[in-house]
Specification:
The complex is a heterodimer. By secondary structure, chain A is of the alpha/beta class. Helix content of chain A is 35%, strand content 16%. Chain A has 18 helices and 16 strands. A five-stranded parallel β-sheet of chain A has the order 3-2-1-4-16, sandwiched between helices. Chain A has a five-stranded parallel β-sheet with strand order 6-14-7-8-9. In chain A, helix 15 links the parallel strand 8 and strand 9. Chain A is globular. Chain B starts with a strand and ends in a 16-residue tail after the last helix. Chain B has two domains: 88 residues, Elongation Factor Tu (Ef-tu), domain 3, CATH 2.40.30.10; 158 residues, Rossmann fold, CATH 3.40.50. Chain B is built from nine helices and 16 strands. In chain B, the strands form three sheets. Chain B has a seven-stranded antiparallel β-sheet. In chain B, strands 11-10-9-8-12-13-16 form a seven-stranded mixed β-sheet, sandwiched between helices. Chain B has a two-stranded antiparallel ribbon with strand order 14-15. The chains are: A alpha/beta, B alpha/beta. Chains A and B meet through strand 5 and helix 13 of A and strand 7, strand 14, helix 8 and helix 9 of B.
Chain lengths: 474, 286
């Protein structure tokens, strides 16, 4: 009796979110191993047991792919991890990825009723725990596939949107083929997000899972060049375009083409896809930089700044024109970067890059900013402070201010309409484009966004494509 | 993985590589390129396509051995495989009709001009060809150009064939032509293209170059291949590789081309190849 009481008391006292173990900042800034180590079974169950199992769970409304969150959390609480992962996989074929890179704090977790009490349930961490638990079991249960329909589906691009469509449609009995332009499948999960945030072995595992279900993957195949959408339409019944955000933006300021000025796409692709971080063991030539400035405040900027530290830079700066509160990066990523020693130069705008006699960057001229009136997006517009110009000596700049959609497919496909921003015109509910039998989703439709939004768009498109493949309606 | 049909050294340090790639061979147009990764986990290198056979389903590349990756390619034998060969990438060379065109080729560019010459001839243009090299023994494929060209000129540094000297002798060649060319198309190392552009500016002849910057993906994603053309930033992989040579910021382009010279040299010292591009010039211009 007494014991029980004590226990009850303890659990009442510990209402806080269970922290996830991390590599200590000063160690991890020197290696490319994953930063977050994940919950243990005990931590996962303890965290799950805090869930109130709301009758009308608000968390689910915050999830772009509508995972039964209280359902899988209840399974973890009971210790039935196999049932838990099965619940997630009903709605999400890439849980080990989304558990790591989803901005849960602005989605499911932001809706949790406990947000203002002892802290919201760490839904993402529990999801990640289940996915990793399943991987550790060695054998993954393959779900039952529907009878073959004889219909053929082509998926252009192997990023999160394309993989979701593939995962959904293969189970419905269709023949699914993915075409990828690069030499490795996975899209941004492979070329963009660094090893320390999303180990590539995990992406490979998810791809192997899809392949074991029968999905065919052709790498080194550039749709729009090797074959056009029109040519693919002759062979396939339906096509999904998930070609992502392609063309990196620059600011059109003087000196942007100096050596040592990289787009974030180049910098991260060189390090991740081309394994520059393993140099000199890898063949990719990599420059050793001492002081690196990353322009921008999103997740890609954080990834670049943290990669620079790991590549041996003695200083890595984030140069962002608004204040800390407006950083578009996930709170956890900005926090991780700060802990590792990334220096935040906020309310700072680069005006021009200054080079040396050999065409290499040596300085940035910046100006300080202050926040003015809110703009259309509701964020306060940064305004230049006259006369506050200063110079920052650096030897590399990574420009991480966003991307335009990749133009290859739109430019080579007649009848596939684009918006002024270059994104594909597509029905937000179905992903249907202006071309018959062609659907689209992810960054190619929305402009640069998140992995989970791309997966959500893939899910919707897959539903619409299934409708077309079975009824002929589009 | 793509199968190697043939690999041979055509002149010292210059290799011809024929690869089985039917999906590329049936699509490629003159002036386009492929990206090749010699071995797994290797570097992605852009290489111009020098020939293709739609029926056999093969493409051919002429490349110079300059660093670790091209050294690996130079070791391939028939039946071997390259890890990746993807394309055709970039836009095709603009082919005019009924023009008097002078082709200027040096280094690997002699190879990549060959499909351009064939297409020009097909479209009813009058083609003259100028081949440039350090010495006569480094000139290749003259026989392929003879049936396509009205005249063939050569400039060699040692004077062993044709005009003696550098590409700076180009005005002499042009003056010796029965009529001034309407346009010049030049393929080759950066030095050759930059100088041809410089020289022809004074002569008032339009010049088209086929740029060869550093690339990673070749599909417009990374932006490493950016080049300033008429004051605007262009991506050579999707906006080019063909540009008006007179509008290119060559100083910037050369600097960007040399960005990884030190690192390449470090790799290169480990390999047995004998020549390297220095200061943006190929070994033939040292």
């Amino acid at each position: 009796m007494n014991d029980e009481k004590t226990q009850e008391k303890t659990s009442k006292m510990d209402l806080n979110r269970r922290a996830m173990p991390h590599q200590p900042p000063m160690i991890r800034r020197n290696n490319f191993d994953e930063v977050a180590l994940g919950y243990t079974e005990e931590l996962a169950r303890a965290e799950a047991s805090r869930c109130l199992q709301c009758k009308k769970p608000r968390c689910v409304t915050g999830c772009p792919v509508e995972i039964d969150i209280p359902g899988f959390i209840a399974c973890v609480k009971k210790g039935d991890f196999a049932a838990g992962i099965k619940k997630i996989k009903e709605k999400n074929c890439l849980p080990s990825v989304s558990g790591r890179v989803c901005p849960q704090e602005s989605q499911c977790e932001s809706k949790c009723i406990l947000l203002n009490k002892g802290g919201e349930i760490a839904i993402g961490r529990i999801e990640r725990f289940l996915a990793d638990w399943e991987a550790k079991q060695g054998k993954v249960d393959l779900p039952k596939k529907a009878k073959p329909t004889g219909k053929k589906v082509a998926i252009v691009g192997s990023g999160p949107a394309g993989l979701t469509v593939a995962g959904d449609l293969i189970l419905l009995g269709h023949e699914v083929t993915i075409f990828e332009a690069l030499h490795k499948a996975g899209g941004v999960l492979i070329y963009g997000i660094p090893e320390f945030r999303l180990p590539k072995a995990i992406v490979a595992r998810e791809l192997d899972y899809l392949k074991s279900l029968g999905v065919k993957v052709y790498t080194d195949f550039v749709v729009g060049k090797t074959r056009s959408i029109d040519e693919l339409l002759e062979e396939f019944d339906a096509i999904f375009v998930g070609t992502g955000a392609g063309l990196p933006w620059f600011m059109s300021i003087p000196g942007e083409n100096l050596n040592g000025v990289y787009s974030a796409n180049e910098y991260l692709t060189r390090m991740n896809l081309m394994k520059g971080y393993l140099a000199p063991r890898s063949a990719t030539p990599v420059k050793k930089h001492v002081k690196v400035a990353v322009v921008g405040g999103g997740n890609v900027a954080m990834d670049s700044a943290r990669t620079a530290l790991r590549m041996g830079a003695s200083e890595s700066h984030i140069v962002y024109r608004r204040s800390h509160a407006e950083l578009p990066a996930r709170a956890e990523e900005a926090e991780n970067a700060e802990e590792e020693g990334v220096i935040f130069d906020l309310l700072t705008l680069p005006l021009r890059y200054i080079g040396d006699e050999n065409g290499w960057i040596k300085e940035i001229e910046c100006i300080k900013m202050e926040l003015g009136e809110p703009d259309a997006s509701g964020r306060r517009t940064p305004v230049e402070k006259p006369g506050s110009n200063f110079r920052m000596p650096i030897d590399a700049v990574v420009v991480a201010i966003g991307n335009s959609p990749n133009p290859l497919v739109p430019a080579t496909t007649p009848g596939l309409d684009t918006t002024k921003r270059g994104t594909l015109v597509a029905d937000p509910e179905t992903g249907k484009t202006t071309r018959g039998r062609v659907w689209a989703g992810g960054d190619i439709v929305t402009g640069a966004a998140t992995v989970i939004l791309a997966m959500g768009a893939g899910r919707k498109a897959a539903r619409a494509m299934q409708e077309y493949l079975t009824t002929g309606k589009q | 993985m793509k199968k190697v049909i043939e690999r041979s050294m055509i002149v010292p340090n210059m290799h011809l590589l024929e690869i089985e790639a039917p999906e590329i061979a049936t699509k490629v147009r003159p002036g386009q390129f492929v990206i090749v990764i010699p071995v797994e986990e290797g570097e992605r290198i852009p290489l111009s396509i020098a020939d293709y056979d739609t029926e056999k389903g093969t493409i051919s590349i002429v490349f110079m051995e300059v660093g670790a990756s091209t050294s690996a390619l130079a070791c391939l034998k028939a039946g071997d495989e390259v890890a990746t060969c993807v394309g055709p990438l970039g836009n095709e060379t603009t082919i005019p009709s009924s023009e008097n065109v002078l082709l200027v080729g040096g280094c690997y560019g002699i190879g990549s001009l060959y499909p351009v010459a064939k297409e020009l001839k097909k479209k009813g243009n009058r083609v003259s060809t100028l081949l440039e090299a350090r010495s006569s023994y480094l000139i290749y494929w003259q026989n392929r150009f003879i049936p396509l060209s009205e005249r063939i000129y050569t400039i060699t540094r040692d004077g062993s064939l044709g005009t003696k000297g550098h590409i700076s002798r180009l005005p002499d060649v042009i003056n010796s032509m029965p009529e001034k060319p309407d346009r010049i198309i030049v393929n080759g190392c950066t030095y050759l293209m930059a100088h041809t552009s410089e020289i022809t500016k004074e002569l008032g002849i339009p010049v088209v170059v086929n740029l060869n910057p550093i690339m990673i993906d070749g599909t417009g994603m990374c932006g490493v291949c950016r080049v300033t053309v008429s004051g605007q930033t262009k991506f050579a992989c999707v906006d080019g590789p063909e540009f008006d040579g007179h509008n290119i910021d060559w100083k910037e382009f050369l600097a960007r081309r040399k960005a990884y010279m030190t690192e390449e040299a470090l790799f290169f010292r480990k390999s047995d190849a004998r020549f390297a591009h220095k200061e943006g010039k190929c070994a033939w211009h040292e």
